[in-house]
């Protein structure tokens, strides 16, 4: 039996999907800001649940109707770097999808394009995590999947028919977290205990590019400050001349 000693999870998905709330549910602690506060930077929190160590990474959400070509390169690079928050790599990507709104074809395309940034092999480590389960009432998640149409069924199939549902209002129900961890263990067995690993050469290039951008920005600020100081001296000189006159 393959049981992951340290479970490393990265939550990804659109804005307002319930990623931060789900991360808190998993850790059984309010460690991540949620609600009206949008996540702007990825953040990793470690914890222990049921005697198991967890490392949970919450990430900024993407705009569900935005094509990848319209997403700034900076944001694409940050998305790729999310996996480096929990080295050597996540045991699972939890693709967070809310059930209180329809999963459209546009959202399908956005998900597919973002997953391409991680590589085709990322799907082997991915699971759909449905949120706001209380919205379904008496309806089962399987009934919801079937009623949603082809786009959502495509996503489930890409994730190897792996999915789980959270009722984020029922945070004291520890069974929904333990069941999630059981499914992750099963996925780990199917992956021979391996975790997702990004090509280190790609990460190195991204970091180098970020450093170059930061260096150019620093140089631009330096030149702007020099110009400001020259203008200030000029104004002070003009003022002194008028005073003497």
Key traits:
alpha/beta, elongated, single chain, 6-stranded mixed β-sheet, 7 helices, Rossmann fold, 245 residues, 2 domains
Written description of the protein model:
With 245 residues, this protein is α/β, with parallel strands linked by helices. Helix content is 45%, strand content 16%. The protein starts with 5 loop residues before the first strand and ends with a helix.
Radius of gyration: 23 Å
- How many β strands by DSSP? 6
Q: Total domains, how many?
A: 2
Largest sheet: 6 strands, mixed
What is the averaged pLDDT score? 85
Order of helices and strands: EHEEHEHEHHEHH
Sheet with most strands: strand arrangement: 2-3-1-4-5-6
Helix content: 40-55%
Given helix and strand content, the structural type is alpha/beta
Globular, elongated, flat, extended or rod-shaped: what is the shape?
elongated
CATH topology of the largest domain: Rossmann fold
Unreliable residue stretches = none
Count of helical regions: 7
Q: Quaternary arrangement of the chains shown?
A: single chain
CATH-derived architecture of the largest domain: 3-Layer(aba) Sandwich
Please report the distance between the alpha carbons of the first and last residues: 91 Å
CATH superfamily of the largest domain: P-loop containing nucleotide triphosphate hydrolases
CATH class label of the largest domain: Alpha Beta
Q: Tell me what portion of residues adopts beta-strand conformation.
A: 15-25%
Keywords: GTP-binding, Nucleotide-binding, Signal
Signal peptide: 1-17
InterPro entries: G_AIG1, GIMA/IAN/Toc, P-loop_NTPase
GO molecular function: GTP binding
């Amino acid at each position: 039996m393959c049981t992951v000693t340290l479970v490393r999870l990265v939550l990804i998905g659109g804005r307002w999907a319930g990623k931060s709330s789900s991360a808190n549910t998993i850790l059984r602690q309010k460690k991540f800001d949620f609600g009206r506060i949008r996540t702007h930077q990825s953040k990793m929190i470690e914890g222990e649940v049921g005697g198991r160590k967890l490392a949970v990474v919450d990430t900024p959400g993407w705009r569900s109707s935005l094509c990848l070509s319209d997403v700034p390169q900076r944001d694409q690079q940050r998305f790729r770097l999310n996996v480096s928050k929990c080295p050597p790599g996540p045991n699972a990507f939890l693709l967070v999808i809310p059930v209180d709104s329809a999963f459209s074809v546009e959202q399908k395309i956005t998900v597919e394009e973002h997953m391409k940034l991680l590589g085709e092999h990322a799907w082997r480590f991915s699971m759909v995590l449905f949120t706001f389960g209380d919205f379904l009432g008496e309806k089962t998640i399987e009934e919801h999947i079937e009623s949603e149409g082809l786009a959502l069924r495509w996503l489930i199939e890409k994730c190897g028919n792996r999915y789980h549902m959270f009722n984020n209002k029922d945070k004291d129900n520890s069974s929904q977290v333990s069941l999630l961890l059981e499914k992750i263990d099963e996925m780990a067995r199917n992956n021979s205990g391996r975790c997702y690993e990004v090509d280190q050469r790609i990460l190195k290039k991204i970091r180098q590019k970020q450093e170059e951008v930061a260096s150019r920005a620093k140089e631009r600020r330096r030149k702007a400050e020099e110009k400001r100081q020259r203008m200030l001296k000029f104004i002070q000189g003009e003022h002194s001349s008028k005073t003497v006159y």
